[in-house]
Amino acid sequence: MRLVGIIVGIVVVVAGLAAAVTFLVFPRVSAPEMGNVVRTTDAARRGLYLANSVMGCLDCHSRREEDLYSMPPVRSAEFGGGFVFSREMGMPGTIVSPNITPGALSNWTDGEVVRAIAAGVARDGRPLFPLMPYHAFGTLDKEDIEAVVAYLRNVPSVRRAVDKTEIDFPVNVLIRFLPRDPEFKQRPNPRDSAAYGEYMVRAAGCADCHTQRDAQGNATGPAFAGGQEMLFPGRFLVRPANITPDQETGIGSWSRDQFIARFKSKTEADYRNTPAPKGSSNTIMPWWAYSGMTPEDLGAIYDYLRTVTPVRNAVTVRFEPR
Ligand code: HEC
Ligand code: HEC
Asked: With b meaning 16 or more CB within 10 Å and e meaning fewer, what string describes 274-291?
């Protein structure tokens, strides 16, 4: 009996120490950089483009018009946070996108905002849930991340409190190991269209939705082959399409012009006037956001997608009411 007691005691002490180390040492990333990001008009303009039309900041960090096609952000709530990713959607807890307007981030330095975006650590040292795509953002060009920050510093503040994220055990502990220092890489020259397109696809997170994943977000299917079930409880279920160049089940038969036209068929303003089709067949593909991408950038994305391995995967039932 006494031996068992000693062993249990040791196990408890070791577990306690491991927990203490985990919380003291992780997340392990460098201190934020000092000094402000460059705030030229060019930087702010580039940041506006990336934050609104490419990198999904506006998409995830706003409440959304669920009755409009592809759910554009609620007006005057842009970047105000409050998009809830719930347990019912398959999340390990209730993940709420925070308010990232100037009012909410007024005591954050530029360096702290850059670190949150590209390394996944909040001002107070809290690890961000990796739905925030900081791993991908940490591989982009530092200039692009800084441009987004330059732009965000001047958007209108939204004064509306949002709920706090609550993550279940053990995921709340495990995510402490995920943040890491960014490994910024230069943006490829647009003349190298496929390489530049790959960069834009990484910035836009196309593979996040268009690849089958487990609950932790790890890929369980071939990249870009689609089919992941995405559930909006009580509203709809949608499966992202196969966007590999497979002729029959992917977008292999699409021309470059058709691809660009699919994105440019409506403007963001049009989406604000387009109700979701009847039968709860709305989509979470942020068509309204990507409609702002330039034809050149969309063309480069197409060129890159032509180079990925074609996969036969028929995603026949795309929409199901729930
Ligand atoms: C796929 C959804 C998604 C996208 C895209 C996204 N975010 Fe986030 N972001 C989140 C979520 C969710 C959190 C909160 C995570 C948590 O609470 O652990 C977050 C956290 C943050 C934070 C930390 C703020 C705080 O108060 O803790 C900042 C800053 C941020 N995001 C900025 C951005 C910017 C800038 C972009 C675009 C470059 C962006 N995000 C794109 C979902 C997203
Ligand atoms: C938030 C999830 C999400 C993201 C991010 C996303 N998609 Fe989608 N996409 C979907 C869903 C869901 C569908 C299927 C419903 C529909 O057609 O809108 C879809 C459909 C498509 C289609 C239509 C295919 C067809 O056969 O009609 C194309 C093309 C496409 N996506 C390309 C892209 C590209 C390129 C990106 C990155 C720039 C991207 N998607 C990012 C969710 C997403």
From this structure: eebeeebbbbbbbbbbbb
Ligand 2 centroid vs 285 CA: distance in angstroms?
5
What is the per-residue pLDDT for 9?
86
How far is 191 from 189, CA to CA, in rounded Å?
A: 5
Classify the phi-psi angles of 76: left when phi > 0, otherwise alpha if psi is within -120 to 50, otherwise beta: left
d(CA 265, CA 291): 8
Closest residue to atom 29 of ligand 2, CA basis: 243
Ligand 2, atom 35: nearest CA belongs to which residue? Answer: 206
49, 210, 256, best to mutate for ligand 2 pocket (most atoms within 8 Å of CB): 210
Is the CB of 230 within 6 Å of ligand 1?
no
Residues whose CB is less than 8 angstroms from the CB of residue 256 and which lie 6 or more positions away in sequence, other chains included: 299, 302, 303
- The residue type of 252 is G
Nearest to 300 by CA among 135, 134, 54, 59: 54
pLDDT tens digit string along 5-32?
Answer: 888 888 888 888 888 888 888 999 999 9
